[in-house]
Amino acid sequence: MYTITVIPGDGIGPEVMEATLNILRASDLEFDFQEARAGYVCFQDTGTTLPDETIEMAKNSDATLFGAVTSVPDQKTAGSILALRKALGLYANLRPIKSYPGVEAVYNDLDILIIRENSEGLYSEIEEYTEEGATALRVITRKASDRISRVAFEEALKRGKTRVTAVHKANVLRKTDGVFREAFWKVAKEYKDIDASKGIETDEFYVDAAAMFLVTDPHRFQVLVTTNLFGDILSDEGAGLVGGLGMAPSANIGDNNGLFEPVHGSAPDIAGTSVANPAAMILSACLMLQFLGEHQEAFKLEQALINVLKQGTFLTPDLGGASTTMEMAQAVRKIFEES
Q1: What secondary structure does DSSP assign to 265-278, as a single string?
Q2: Is 208 a catalytic residue?
Q3: Is 236 one of the annotated active-site residues of the chain?
Q4: Are 88 and 54 in contact, with CB atoms under 8 Å apart?
Q5: Catalytic pick from 32, 45, 208, 255?
Q6: Which of 210, 241, 272 is the last residue of a domain?
Q7: 52 is catalytic
Q8: Which neighbouring-strand residues pair with 115?
C-alpha cells in the first residue's frame, strides 16, 4: 500500500483533486490517501499557508499530490508550494510538454521535457528594499547546477531521448549562468565518456532564442534543462503549444520525496462551477505512478485519458465539450477500470 499525502488547496484544486482520486481508487494498487492543508483558505483559518503537520505528513508519505493554491496578498514569507518544495528538498521540476489527440493545439506531435532547477535562482527569495526600489539576489551554485544537469541526462536515458539542451543567458549573466553552463558541459562530458553508444547529443541556447524556437521550431528540442525562472516561463510557453495549462502536469523530485501538481493555478473565477479540466491533475498522477515505479499503471491511466480525449464525448468546456469535471473523470475511470 502506498501512503499519499493529498493537498487539495484552493479554488479548483479540490475539484480536480477529487476527480483524480476518484480515478485512482479504481486502480489495482492500494492507496492510503491522507488529506492535509495548505494555501489561502488554510491561512485564513490558521494564520499559516503551510502548517508543520502538512510538512511532516508529506515527508513521511510515499508521494504527495498537490492541487492548486491561491497566493496570500502581501504575505512576507514563502508561498506554500515554494515552502513545501524547499522543506522536502525537491530540487528538480519536471514539466512535460506533450500533445494529446482531440486537444486543439499549435502542434499535434510534441513530446518535450523541460527540467527546471527548483531550489535557487531568483526564487531564492533573497530580496530587500532600497531607497530607489528593491533588489533580488540570483543564487546559482555549482552543486545545484551539476545536480540538475545529471537529472536531465538520466531522464533522457529513461525516456529514450537523444538530445539534451541547456538553456541559459551566460552572455549577459556571465557569472551566475556561467556557473550553470560550465556544470552542464562538465556533466555532458562525463556521460559521453561513460558510454558514447548512448548517443545523447548536447547543445545550448540563450533563453531568448530558446523561447523563439520553442514556438517556431519546437521539434529541435527533446529535453531542456535550465534555471528556475527560465524554466517556469518556458514551460508555460510550451503548455500554450499543446492546449494550455489544463494539459500541463509537473513533478517535483528530490532524493527522498516527490510532489506532483498541475501547472495551472487555482482559477478562482471558475471555482465551484464544476467546469475545471482535470487532465493536468490526472497527468500529474501519472507522473506520481512513474515515480513510484508503477509504470504499467501509469501507462494505463494515461491511455484511459487519451481514449476519453479521442472520443470527445465527455470533455470540459475548455476542451470543446459540455461535461463537468467529474463527468470527464468518471469517463476516464470507466476505461481505466476496464483496461
Answers
A1: ---TTTTTSS----
A2: yes
A3: yes
A4: no
A5: 208
A6: 241
A7: no
A8: 94, 225
pLDDT at 199: 73
Q: Specify the pTM.
A: 0.96
Q: By residue range, what is the domain housing residue 43?
A: 1-90+255-339
Indicate the residue among 217, 241, 265 that finishes a domain: 241
Residue 229: closest CA among 178, 167, 172, 280: 167
Start-end of H helices in the chain:
13-24, 40-46, 52-59, 80-88, 142-159, 176-194, 207-216, 228-241, 279-291, 295-311, 325-338
Q: What is the Cα–Cα distance from 197 to 300, expressed in whole angstroms?
A: 31
Q: What CATH number does residue 138 fall under?
A: 3.40.718.10
Cβ distance 58 to 38 under 8 Å? no
Residues across the chain: 339
Annotated active-site residue in 10, 177, 232, 318: 232
Residue 59's pLDDT is what?
A: 97
The catalytic residue among 169, 177, 300, 318 is: 169
Burial 50-67 (b: 16+ CB within 10 A, else e): bbeebbebbeebbbbbbb
| Annotation marks residue 169 as catalytic | yes
pLDDT at 79 (0 to 100): 76
Q: Which residues of the chain have pLDDT under 70?
A: 74-78, 194-198
Residue 11 · residue 269 · CB < 8 Å: no
**Is 17 among the domain residues?**
yes
Indicate the number of domains in the chain: 2
For the sheet containing 249-253, what is the strand order?
A: 31-35, 2-9, 63-68, 258-262, 249-253, 92-98, 111-117, 223-226, 163-168, 201-206
Best CA proximity match to 261, nearest among 21, 17, 48? 17
Catalytic: which of 123, 146, 300, 318? 123
2 is annotated as an active-site residue: no
pLDDT at position 78: 56
Q: Indicate whether 15 belongs to any domain.
A: yes
* Residue 223: inside a domain: yes
